[in-house]
Target: Bifunctional protein FolD
Amino acid sequence: MAPVQRIDGKAFAARMTTRIADEVRSLFDEAGLKPGLAVVLVGHDPASQVYVGAKHKATIAAGMKSFEHRLPAETSEDVLLGLIAQLNADPNVHGILVQLPLPAHLDASAVIAAIDPSKNVDGFHVVNAGQLATGQDALVPCTPLGCLFLLQDHLGDLSGLHAVIVGRSNIVGKPMAQLLLGANCTVTIAHSGSRDLPALCRTADILIAAVGRPEMIRGDWIKPGATVIDVGINRIPDGDSTRLVGDVAFAEAGHAGAITPVPGGVGPMTIACLLQNTLTAFRRKLPAKA
Ligand SMILES: Nc1nc(=O)c2c([nH]1)NC[C@@H]1CN(c3ccc(C(=O)N[C@@H](CCC(=O)O)C(=O)O)cc3)C=[N+]21
Model:
Protein backbone atom coordinates (compact mmCIF):
# COMPACT_ATOMS: atom_id res chain seq x y z
CA MET A 1 0.00 0.00 0.00
CA ALA A 2 1.07 3.58 -0.64
CA PRO A 3 2.84 5.24 2.28
CA VAL A 4 0.81 7.56 4.49
CA GLN A 5 0.66 11.16 3.28
CA ARG A 6 1.30 14.00 5.71
CA ILE A 7 -1.26 16.77 5.37
CA ASP A 8 0.79 19.94 5.72
CA GLY A 9 -1.45 22.35 7.61
CA LYS A 10 1.37 24.78 8.19
CA ALA A 11 1.97 25.25 4.47
CA PHE A 12 -1.76 25.44 3.69
CA ALA A 13 -2.25 28.06 6.43
CA ALA A 14 0.66 30.09 5.05
CA ARG A 15 -0.94 30.09 1.58
CA MET A 16 -4.29 31.10 3.08
CA THR A 17 -2.68 33.95 5.02
CA THR A 18 -0.94 35.23 1.89
CA ARG A 19 -4.23 35.17 -0.03
CA ILE A 20 -6.03 37.00 2.79
CA ALA A 21 -3.24 39.62 2.98
CA ASP A 22 -3.42 40.16 -0.81
CA GLU A 23 -7.17 40.60 -0.58
CA VAL A 24 -6.91 43.06 2.32
CA ARG A 25 -4.30 45.16 0.51
CA SER A 26 -5.71 45.10 -3.00
CA LEU A 27 -9.35 45.65 -2.12
CA PHE A 28 -9.32 47.96 0.85
CA ASP A 29 -5.98 49.69 1.49
CA GLU A 30 -6.58 52.48 -1.02
CA ALA A 31 -9.92 53.33 0.54
CA GLY A 32 -8.24 53.52 3.95
CA LEU A 33 -10.25 50.53 5.22
CA LYS A 34 -8.68 47.85 7.40
CA PRO A 35 -10.18 44.86 9.15
CA GLY A 36 -9.46 44.96 12.89
CA LEU A 37 -9.21 42.06 15.36
CA ALA A 38 -9.34 42.55 19.12
CA VAL A 39 -7.91 39.75 21.28
CA VAL A 40 -8.57 39.77 25.01
CA LEU A 41 -6.38 37.76 27.38
CA VAL A 42 -7.22 37.57 31.07
CA GLY A 43 -4.39 36.33 33.28
CA HIS A 44 -0.95 34.91 32.58
CA ASP A 45 -1.44 31.32 31.42
CA PRO A 46 1.83 30.63 29.54
CA ALA A 47 0.24 28.63 26.70
CA SER A 48 -2.39 31.36 26.19
CA GLN A 49 0.34 34.03 26.08
CA VAL A 50 2.05 32.12 23.27
CA TYR A 51 -1.20 31.70 21.28
CA VAL A 52 -2.18 35.35 21.71
CA GLY A 53 1.27 36.43 20.55
CA ALA A 54 0.95 34.18 17.49
CA LYS A 55 -2.49 35.62 16.68
CA HIS A 56 -1.13 39.18 16.95
CA LYS A 57 1.74 38.42 14.56
CA ALA A 58 -0.57 36.73 12.04
CA THR A 59 -3.04 39.62 12.17
CA ILE A 60 -0.33 42.17 11.41
CA ALA A 61 1.12 39.93 8.67
CA ALA A 62 -2.32 39.88 7.01
CA GLY A 63 -2.39 43.69 6.91
CA MET A 64 -5.07 43.95 9.58
CA LYS A 65 -5.21 46.04 12.74
CA SER A 66 -4.55 44.13 15.94
CA PHE A 67 -5.89 45.34 19.28
CA GLU A 68 -4.50 43.42 22.23
CA HIS A 69 -6.07 43.72 25.67
CA ARG A 70 -4.12 41.97 28.43
CA LEU A 71 -5.99 42.09 31.72
CA PRO A 72 -4.86 40.93 35.16
CA ALA A 73 -6.00 37.49 36.37
CA GLU A 74 -8.20 39.05 39.07
CA THR A 75 -10.24 41.15 36.57
CA SER A 76 -13.92 41.19 37.57
CA GLU A 77 -16.68 40.03 35.25
CA ASP A 78 -18.12 43.58 35.21
CA VAL A 79 -14.85 45.02 33.97
CA LEU A 80 -14.51 42.33 31.30
CA LEU A 81 -18.11 42.79 30.15
CA GLY A 82 -17.50 46.56 30.05
CA LEU A 83 -14.52 46.06 27.74
CA ILE A 84 -16.59 43.77 25.49
CA ALA A 85 -19.36 46.38 25.28
CA GLN A 86 -16.75 48.94 24.25
CA LEU A 87 -15.33 46.60 21.56
CA ASN A 88 -18.84 45.74 20.32
CA ALA A 89 -19.42 49.48 19.76
CA ASP A 90 -16.01 50.25 18.20
CA PRO A 91 -16.30 50.59 14.38
CA ASN A 92 -12.57 49.80 13.99
CA VAL A 93 -13.05 46.39 15.59
CA HIS A 94 -14.57 43.76 13.29
CA GLY A 95 -13.60 40.67 15.22
CA ILE A 96 -13.44 39.99 18.96
CA LEU A 97 -11.81 36.96 20.55
CA VAL A 98 -11.64 36.34 24.29
CA GLN A 99 -8.93 33.76 24.85
CA LEU A 100 -10.14 30.64 26.66
CA PRO A 101 -9.85 29.21 29.24
CA LEU A 102 -10.78 32.12 31.49
CA PRO A 103 -9.83 32.21 35.18
CA ALA A 104 -12.29 30.17 37.26
CA HIS A 105 -14.13 33.15 38.79
CA LEU A 106 -15.32 34.27 35.34
CA ASP A 107 -18.33 32.70 33.60
CA ALA A 108 -17.14 31.86 30.07
CA SER A 109 -20.65 31.36 28.68
CA ALA A 110 -21.78 34.80 29.93
CA VAL A 111 -18.68 36.36 28.37
CA ILE A 112 -19.19 34.59 25.03
CA ALA A 113 -22.86 35.62 25.02
CA ALA A 114 -21.85 39.26 25.47
CA ILE A 115 -19.80 39.37 22.26
CA ASP A 116 -21.85 40.68 19.32
CA PRO A 117 -22.46 37.58 17.12
CA SER A 118 -21.50 39.59 14.02
CA LYS A 119 -18.04 40.16 15.59
CA ASN A 120 -17.74 36.74 17.27
CA VAL A 121 -14.92 35.44 15.08
CA ASP A 122 -14.59 32.31 17.22
CA GLY A 123 -18.15 31.46 16.17
CA PHE A 124 -18.93 30.53 19.78
CA HIS A 125 -22.12 32.60 20.30
CA VAL A 126 -25.38 30.60 20.38
CA VAL A 127 -26.54 32.68 17.42
CA ASN A 128 -23.46 31.58 15.44
CA ALA A 129 -24.05 27.95 16.46
CA GLY A 130 -27.73 28.20 15.50
CA GLN A 131 -26.93 29.74 12.14
CA LEU A 132 -24.43 26.96 11.39
CA ALA A 133 -26.89 24.26 12.51
CA THR A 134 -29.66 25.65 10.29
CA GLY A 135 -27.49 26.19 7.21
CA GLN A 136 -27.38 30.00 7.33
CA ASP A 137 -24.31 32.15 6.73
CA ALA A 138 -22.41 31.96 9.99
CA LEU A 139 -19.07 32.77 11.52
CA VAL A 140 -17.84 29.21 11.96
CA PRO A 141 -15.48 28.06 14.76
CA CYS A 142 -11.93 28.33 13.44
CA THR A 143 -10.57 24.87 14.27
CA PRO A 144 -13.30 22.78 12.59
CA LEU A 145 -13.36 25.21 9.63
CA GLY A 146 -9.63 24.63 9.20
CA CYS A 147 -10.17 20.86 9.34
CA LEU A 148 -12.84 21.09 6.62
CA PHE A 149 -10.50 23.08 4.36
CA LEU A 150 -7.73 20.49 4.79
CA LEU A 151 -10.13 17.62 4.05
CA GLN A 152 -11.55 19.28 0.94
CA ASP A 153 -8.06 20.12 -0.29
CA HIS A 154 -6.91 16.54 0.21
CA LEU A 155 -10.00 14.56 -0.84
CA GLY A 156 -11.98 16.95 -3.03
CA ASP A 157 -15.68 16.05 -2.83
CA LEU A 158 -16.54 14.53 0.54
CA SER A 159 -20.04 13.34 -0.45
CA GLY A 160 -21.10 10.00 0.96
CA LEU A 161 -17.98 9.44 3.05
CA HIS A 162 -18.40 8.25 6.62
CA ALA A 163 -16.86 10.72 9.06
CA VAL A 164 -16.40 9.66 12.67
CA ILE A 165 -15.71 12.53 15.06
CA VAL A 166 -14.32 11.54 18.45
CA GLY A 167 -15.18 14.46 20.73
CA ARG A 168 -18.38 16.41 21.27
CA SER A 169 -17.27 19.88 22.39
CA ASN A 170 -19.05 23.06 21.33
CA ILE A 171 -15.70 24.31 20.01
CA VAL A 172 -14.73 21.38 17.78
CA GLY A 173 -16.87 18.23 17.75
CA LYS A 174 -20.36 19.67 17.31
CA PRO A 175 -19.52 22.36 14.70
CA MET A 176 -17.30 19.83 12.87
CA ALA A 177 -20.33 17.55 12.57
CA GLN A 178 -22.43 20.39 11.12
CA LEU A 179 -19.76 21.27 8.58
CA LEU A 180 -19.29 17.67 7.45
CA LEU A 181 -23.05 17.15 7.17
CA GLY A 182 -23.13 20.28 5.04
CA ALA A 183 -20.45 18.67 2.85
CA ASN A 184 -22.72 15.59 2.44
CA CYS A 185 -20.80 13.21 4.68
CA THR A 186 -22.47 10.58 6.82
CA VAL A 187 -21.52 11.73 10.29
CA THR A 188 -21.08 9.87 13.57
CA ILE A 189 -20.27 11.84 16.71
CA ALA A 190 -18.55 9.63 19.27
CA HIS A 191 -16.77 10.31 22.55
CA SER A 192 -14.57 8.59 25.07
CA GLY A 193 -17.62 6.77 26.50
CA SER A 194 -18.89 5.39 23.18
CA ARG A 195 -19.33 1.61 23.19
CA ASP A 196 -16.56 -0.21 21.29
CA LEU A 197 -14.92 2.99 20.14
CA PRO A 198 -12.04 1.23 18.31
CA ALA A 199 -14.47 -0.73 16.08
CA LEU A 200 -16.53 2.41 15.44
CA CYS A 201 -13.42 4.34 14.42
CA ARG A 202 -12.45 1.51 12.04
CA THR A 203 -15.61 2.25 10.03
CA ALA A 204 -14.44 5.82 9.34
CA ASP A 205 -13.31 7.05 5.93
CA ILE A 206 -12.57 10.33 7.72
CA LEU A 207 -11.51 10.15 11.37
CA ILE A 208 -11.47 13.37 13.39
CA ALA A 209 -9.70 13.06 16.74
CA ALA A 210 -10.71 15.81 19.16
CA VAL A 211 -10.77 14.22 22.59
CA GLY A 212 -7.83 15.98 24.23
CA ARG A 213 -6.13 12.79 25.42
CA PRO A 214 -2.56 12.22 24.25
CA GLU A 215 -2.29 9.40 21.66
CA MET A 216 -5.56 7.80 22.74
CA ILE A 217 -6.42 6.70 19.19
CA ARG A 218 -4.23 3.75 18.29
CA GLY A 219 -3.11 2.48 14.93
CA ASP A 220 -5.53 -0.47 14.91
CA TRP A 221 -8.47 1.97 15.28
CA ILE A 222 -7.71 3.35 11.83
CA LYS A 223 -9.08 1.76 8.64
CA PRO A 224 -6.37 1.30 5.98
CA GLY A 225 -6.44 4.27 3.64
CA ALA A 226 -8.54 6.49 5.94
CA THR A 227 -7.93 10.24 6.22
CA VAL A 228 -7.08 11.18 9.81
CA ILE A 229 -7.37 14.71 11.19
CA ASP A 230 -5.70 15.09 14.58
CA VAL A 231 -7.07 18.10 16.46
CA GLY A 232 -5.30 17.27 19.74
CA ILE A 233 -2.50 19.47 21.02
CA ASN A 234 -1.13 17.83 24.17
CA ARG A 235 2.13 18.78 25.84
CA ILE A 236 3.66 15.69 27.47
CA PRO A 237 6.89 15.16 29.43
CA ASP A 238 9.84 13.97 27.35
CA GLY A 239 13.00 13.37 29.37
CA ASP A 240 13.95 16.68 30.97
CA SER A 241 11.78 18.61 28.53
CA THR A 242 8.31 18.34 26.97
CA ARG A 243 6.93 17.73 23.50
CA LEU A 244 3.64 18.13 21.65
CA VAL A 245 1.62 15.09 20.64
CA GLY A 246 -1.83 14.76 19.16
CA ASP A 247 -4.79 12.58 20.14
CA VAL A 248 -3.60 9.96 17.60
CA ALA A 249 -0.61 7.63 18.03
CA PHE A 250 1.04 9.05 14.92
CA ALA A 251 3.79 6.42 14.69
CA GLU A 252 1.13 3.67 14.42
CA ALA A 253 -0.78 5.33 11.57
CA GLY A 254 1.47 4.25 8.68
CA HIS A 255 -1.45 2.44 6.98
CA ALA A 256 -3.70 5.53 6.97
CA GLY A 257 -4.18 7.26 3.63
CA ALA A 258 -3.23 10.63 5.09
CA ILE A 259 -2.82 12.23 8.49
CA THR A 260 -2.21 15.69 9.93
CA PRO A 261 0.94 15.94 12.06
CA VAL A 262 1.12 17.64 15.48
CA PRO A 263 2.55 20.25 15.41
CA GLY A 264 2.17 21.58 11.87
CA GLY A 265 -1.32 20.27 11.11
CA VAL A 266 -4.57 21.68 12.46
CA GLY A 267 -3.02 24.27 14.84
CA PRO A 268 -1.78 26.72 12.21
CA MET A 269 -5.10 26.38 10.35
CA THR A 270 -6.95 27.65 13.43
CA ILE A 271 -5.09 30.95 13.23
CA ALA A 272 -5.49 31.26 9.44
CA CYS A 273 -9.25 30.70 9.82
CA LEU A 274 -9.38 33.39 12.51
CA LEU A 275 -8.03 35.84 9.92
CA GLN A 276 -10.50 34.50 7.37
CA ASN A 277 -13.40 35.04 9.80
CA THR A 278 -12.19 38.55 10.62
CA LEU A 279 -12.16 39.36 6.89
CA THR A 280 -15.65 37.87 6.54
CA ALA A 281 -16.97 39.93 9.48
CA PHE A 282 -15.35 43.05 7.99
CA ARG A 283 -16.84 42.45 4.52
CA ARG A 284 -20.31 42.10 6.02
CA LYS A 285 -19.95 45.56 7.61
CA LEU A 286 -18.99 47.28 4.34
CA PRO A 287 -21.64 49.55 2.92
CA ALA A 288 -23.41 47.84 0.01
CA LYS A 289 -21.90 48.88 -3.34
CA ALA A 290 -23.92 51.64 -5.02
N1 LIG B 1 -11.24 32.03 22.24
C1 LIG B 1 -10.33 31.13 21.86
N2 LIG B 1 -10.18 30.83 20.54
C2 LIG B 1 -9.23 29.92 20.14
O1 LIG B 1 -9.10 29.65 18.94
C3 LIG B 1 -8.39 29.31 21.14
C4 LIG B 1 -8.59 29.67 22.48
N3 LIG B 1 -9.56 30.56 22.81
N4 LIG B 1 -7.84 29.11 23.45
C5 LIG B 1 -6.77 28.17 23.15
C6 LIG B 1 -7.02 27.43 21.86
C7 LIG B 1 -5.79 26.79 21.27
N5 LIG B 1 -5.59 27.41 19.99
C8 LIG B 1 -4.51 27.15 19.14
C9 LIG B 1 -4.19 27.92 18.05
C10 LIG B 1 -3.06 27.66 17.28
C11 LIG B 1 -2.21 26.63 17.59
C12 LIG B 1 -0.99 26.38 16.78
O2 LIG B 1 -0.70 27.13 15.86
N6 LIG B 1 -0.20 25.35 17.09
C13 LIG B 1 1.04 25.05 16.39
C14 LIG B 1 2.25 25.02 17.32
C15 LIG B 1 1.95 25.04 18.79
C16 LIG B 1 3.17 25.02 19.69
O3 LIG B 1 4.31 24.82 19.22
O4 LIG B 1 2.96 25.21 20.90
C17 LIG B 1 0.90 23.70 15.70
O5 LIG B 1 0.06 22.90 16.08
O6 LIG B 1 1.68 23.45 14.79
C18 LIG B 1 -2.53 25.82 18.66
C19 LIG B 1 -3.66 26.08 19.42
C20 LIG B 1 -6.55 28.35 19.81
N7 LIG B 1 -7.41 28.39 20.83
In short: Residues 51, 54, 97-100, 122, 142, 233, 244, 262-264, 267-268, 270-271 surround 5,10-Methenyltetrahydrofolate (CB under 6 Å). The longest strand covers residues 36-42.
